[in-house]
Amino acid sequence: MSRRPILVAAGWVATVAVATLIGLGAIRLVGESITGTPGGVRSEADIERALASPEPAPSGMTGGPSTATPAPSASAGVRRSFATDGGTAVAECGPEGVRLVSWAPAQGYRVHEVDRGPDDDVEVTFEGSAGRHELKVRCIGTEPVAVADD
């Protein structure tokens, strides 16, 4: 009679161990797409470097609504990156005015609106549970500068 509870407990422990191993194997098989950021977590210095010289997106890219990186034009001017709590953006000044080169929301935010330009000023609005952050950029001389929203 005392053997039965021991066998039940041992069977339960074995079942839990097997289920845990199967779960860990499945997570490893699926990879970073479920457990983390593709390409790993980036440091602040890595992000600043990437924003300083963004790569153009492939022309056939059907990426999500959160980022955009058009190919640089031949008349590319001074580029500068900007950061808010809601996300980051890179803008450049050229003969046609200022334009947003790229933008990316911070974790927990999404892109709500984008006016990429070229124009006298450009805007990107990041929205998340912690609030809304607007970034407006205008050219002063040949350099893009963040300005207060009108």
Protein model, in words:
- This protein has helices spanning 3-30, 32-35, 44-52, and strands at residues 79-84, 87-94, 97-105, 109-115, 121-128, 131-140, 143-147.
- The chain is α+β, with helices and mostly antiparallel strands.
- The strands form two sheets. The chain has a four-stranded antiparallel beta sheet, with no helix packed on it.
- A hairpin with a 2-residue loop joins strand 5 (121-128) and strand 6.
- The longest helix is centred in the N-terminal third of the chain and has 28 residues, at 3-30.
State the helicity in percent bands: 25-40%
Q: If you compute it from the alpha carbons, what radius of gyration comes out, rounded to the nearest whole angstrom?
A: 24 Å
How many extended strands? 7
Mean pLDDT: 79
Oligomer: single chain
In the sheet with the most strands, the strands line up as 4-5-6-7
Inertia-based shape: rod-shaped
User: What structural class results from the helix and strand content?
Assistant: alpha+beta
Please provide the ordered H/E string of secondary-structure elements: HHHEEEEEEE
Largest sheet: 4 strands, antiparallel
- End-to-end Cα distance, whole Å, is 82 Å
